[in-house]
Each structure stands twice: as C-alpha cells, then as structure tokens.
Specification:
The protein has 487 residues and is an alpha+beta fold. It contains nine helices and 24 strands. The strands form six sheets. An eight-stranded mixed β-sheet has the order 7-6-10-4-3-13-16-15, with no helix packed on it. Strands 2-5-9-8 form a four-stranded mixed β-sheet, with no helix packed on it. Strands 11-12-17-14 form a four-stranded antiparallel β-sheet, with no helix packed on it.
Amino acid sequence: MTTRPTPRPARRPLARPLLAGMLGAVLATGLLHPTATAQAPASAPTDGAPGIGDPYWPLDGNGGIDVTEYRISTRYGFASKRLSGRTAVELTATQDLASFSLDFLLKVSKVTVDGEKARFAKADGGHELRITPQEPLAAGSAHTVVVSYDDRPDRYAYAGERNWLANRSEVVTMNEPHMAPWWFPSNDHPLDKAVVDVKVRVPKGREVVSNGKLRAKKVGKRSTQWHWRADEPMAPYLAFFAAGDFTLAKGRQRGLPWLVAVSEQLSEADQAASMKLMKKTPAVVAGLEEDLGDYPFSVVGGITTGLDPGFALENQTRPTYPAVGSSYTTLVVHELAHQWFGDDVAVHHWSDIWLNEGFATFMEWRWNETHGGRAADATFRSYYDNVAASSDFWKVTIGDPGAARVFDNAIYGRGAMTLQALRNRVGDEVFWQVVRTWLREQKGGNGSTAEFEATAARVSGQDLGSFFTAWLRTASKPAATADNGLG
C-alpha cells in the first residue's frame, strides 16, 4: 500500500488508523489416557471465537473455521450505491461447532448451511455475523454456507473507518487491512487465504474488473454480468472489484497474460498518461523477477480508478492506483513487489507489516539502482544522515508498531533501511540468498518477523540478534556500527 505520490526523494505513505485482525484456528482432538481402553467422551460443540487471535484487531477473522473458497455473485446499482446478491463460502470446521462467525457489515436476509436454513444474528457492532446451523458441525467436516444480502455499503463503518469508495459513475473496493466485510462475508484475516470467484452484474455498457482472469461476460438486454476468478488463494482484503466505464488493454509477455484498465472518468490527458503507466506492468514484473525469481501468480495487471482513494493498493494480480501520471514507475514497482511480499507471502500477524511495506519500498530503491538511478545504499545513508535522532521516525518499533501505526512512515522507510542494512552486514550475494530462500520456503503462505530473522541467520551463518533488535525493536536511531550495517 502506498499513498498518492508527490515529487520527493522518499515517498511517505498515508498515515491512517487502518484495521485488521487474526485468529489461529485449533483442531479439537481427543486423547486416550495411557491405561484407558476406550475413547474419552467427546466435548460438547462450542461457539467459534469471534476473532482469529490478532491482538491488533481482535474481531478480525474467526475461530473454528478454515475457508477454501468464496463464490461471490452480486448486483451493483450506481445511482443507489446498493449491493445485492449472495456469497457461497466453502469452509471446513476445525473444531466441533455449535455456531461460528463470519465478518460482514451488510444487512443479511437469509443464511443456509448445506442447503438448510440457519439462524443468524449480528453482534459486536454489526461486524460479526453469528451463524447457528440446525445441527452442529463436526471437526474436519466440509460445508457450504450461503449468505444473501441487500444493502448500501457506504452506510457502514468498522473500527472507525468507512471504506466504501464510490460515486454515481464508479466504485472500487480497495483498502487495507480491511475491505472484504463491506462487500462479502469472510474470514477476514491473512491467515485464512482462499480462492475468490467474483460475479458482478451492472447496467449494460459498464465494465467490471476484478482479480485473476476474466472467465465470462454475459450480456443481457439491460445488464451485463462479468465473471472473474483468480487461480491462487488470497487474503480477503486483497480481493476487489471495480465497476464503471473503463478502457481495457491486454497482452502477453514471456508467457504471462496481463490485463490493465483505466477509468474513462478521468480527463483524456490523464487517461493517456495512466494507460502508459499501466502498460509498464509486464516490464516491471520481468525486472523484479531478476532479483526475486518467478512471478508467483498466473496473471498480472493493474487498474487506475477515476476516484480519489489517496493511495495505491496491491490487490492480488491487479493492483489499483489513483491517477498519478505516466512517469511514476516506482509506484508500480512498489505494488508489484507486493505480489511477492504481502500477497504470495502474507503477514502472519499485522505486527509483521514491515515485511510487506519494507520490502516493497526496498525494491523501489533496488529498481532505481538497476535502472540508472541512485544506489540503494546511497538512499539508505541519506535517510540515516538526514533524519535526526530526535525524530518520531526512530520512535516506531517497526517489528511491533501497534495498531495505530501499522502504516506509519517508519514502517516503509525504516523497514527498507533494515533490509539495506542487512545487505551491508551479510554481503550482496548472501542477502539475495536470504530473500530468495524466504520467498521459496514461505511460498503461498504466511511469514512472521521471527521466521524471517531465523531465515536470515540460518542462510548467512551469522548471529543477527543484536542487529534485528537495533533495527526492529528499539525505539531509537541505530548506532552507526558495522554490526548494524553502517560500517
């Protein structure tokens, strides 16, 4: 995620009290007593927890379930800003459940579990949709939950945020760490990735763009249904759709299909500039692959909205951007670097956010040094020399910044500095071995700060404990020592 850029040496992201959450689901097991001859009585089904266990946002995600797929089918009205439809959630119970929750803000009219009507209620300020099936769900059993709804998403807020971005001509569902609860019921935390299949019906003549590949386009007398589906599972906040009037362009580079879109709500000059920038996408991916290895997904792209979100976001396979002109290539670098760092390898807790934003910012520095610009180490030392020790920049412990500061400037800048300092400390060759090992071993999953530290130490063969303490866990400017990568 980045803020709308303005010309300056280092981009400063929008500081906003964004939200998130997490809960590690636990599989219930029965244990035999060493001298027993029969299985101990099973415990009674319980209510799944309303959160997945992330201390930053305790209501994010849910306990007792593991989602494998969302099949979203909706209709959107531009004038009314009304969203109606239903979502089928394929999930597995990870414990014996009397009831369970999904994260959803909209008004619900009906819920079924495996085709049977289920009781439902809203709790915790309307964010938790508590579902009680007719029969308890056994641990390990798979189920289809269908939620029907009809409401105006712009009426709702969660944890102080109103994330629905729309006018009478266009809508785009983009935000971090929360967006899903405004348009589909979900287990809203990066720990539970799932395949996302999106069908959106809009008035005839309008376009819809979403993640993955366009599977079908059904044109009726008055409306058109667009069907998009991503091949690879994703964290719920990375799922999106944009609807309105868009110009689409597509192609294939080195076997990788790409599709980009630009809003026709922009001026002709902004449309042309934005399309020029979006068409840099496949070349940027090819450049990033030289350092990071193969692009992790089966399609790539980007979309420029005519709305004014104030930031760009790394929606999986197709980041969304504000109109910024044609020259801001490093913004595209940042969001596409997130396809590796944040999308393919997602955070384990939101406290690990520096692994997303620090790496994406560092890859901007790396892009500049490999494309005729300033060396990453020069950018690193400029930060160090020009940010005073008394600055609040150094007071953020980026390894665990707290919910209010997950998108603080330091998460980006100090995060990138940590990586360049590591590069200085262990050497260029070993550094890139660390990065590629991290991506290979965490591929398709989640990664924590502790795991990254362990990977760096193992691959480098060095004791890096004091190094990471100085950069990630100390609320002060690291000393200018060789141990800290500043020799």
